[in-house]
Amino acid sequence: MRSSNPVFSRRGxxxxxxxxxxxxxxxxxGAAVGTQGNxxxxxxxGNxxxxxxxxxxxxQYGAPPQAPVTTDRMTMDDVVMRSAMTLGTVVxxxxxxxxxxxxxxxxxxxxxxxxLIAFVxxxxxxxxxxxxxxLILSYAAFEGVFLGxxxxxxxxxxxxxxxxxxxxxxxxxxxxxxIYKAGWIRVTARxxxxxxxxAIAFVLVMAVNLLLVAFxxxxxxxxxxxxxxxxxxxxxxxxxxAFFLTLDFKQIQDGIAYGAPRKEAxxxxxxxxxxxxxxxxxxxxxxxxxxxxx
Length: 294
Known about the structure:
The chain is mostly helical. The protein has eight helices and no strands. The chain is about 60% helix and about 0% strand.
């Protein structure tokens, strides 16, 4: 199963672009995918290496794919560092856009242009075989410009909305992490399939709604209005964002456990950034809805 957030798709940590922990399809002879030829990856209950997508790769080290001990393996520190760099780039871009660009129609047009460029860069990275730090950081910079402009616009009408949205995003992320770490949510293949189906349906409905609004069929934003219906849709979008965070956490956990290459930490940062941006934008809209008109 391929990992993605509601807007962009991205490659998982396994070599076949699937989830590391979900790579369980049997091959001839009963071995799990990626385990043939690996003496540490024999199928069987309780064997932690039977589903390791890096099993073949780990043979060159002559040891089971345990926690990273060599410099070319991804660690949590690598993920934290790359994520800090990527999110930091988003923040810098947003602050500069807020400080330099005035609230105007031309600034909004620039923000839309930056969002489109970020989308293209994200799609290019999603289809690349390997992570490109330059591409990911460029995506973050343009995404930051977009967020800075729209945050300033929201703040001009609903004072303090961006700050509340940041706090809300942090709260959702922290709560999701705590629930995941506590084991209240088990990220299984079935869980991912159901969640992805709901997310795809959501995106398709939002796309249709956008077309209806653009052609004047739906008024006041349709499902994305600033009323109660828009609030319900916004809450659903945030819940979907939390769902994708659990997939991100699972990828990171599996990548570290299975000895993913260090470069994969950039993909983890890329995925987390896209998910957090999604949650922030939806939280910004939700704060504005509950704040009402000034």
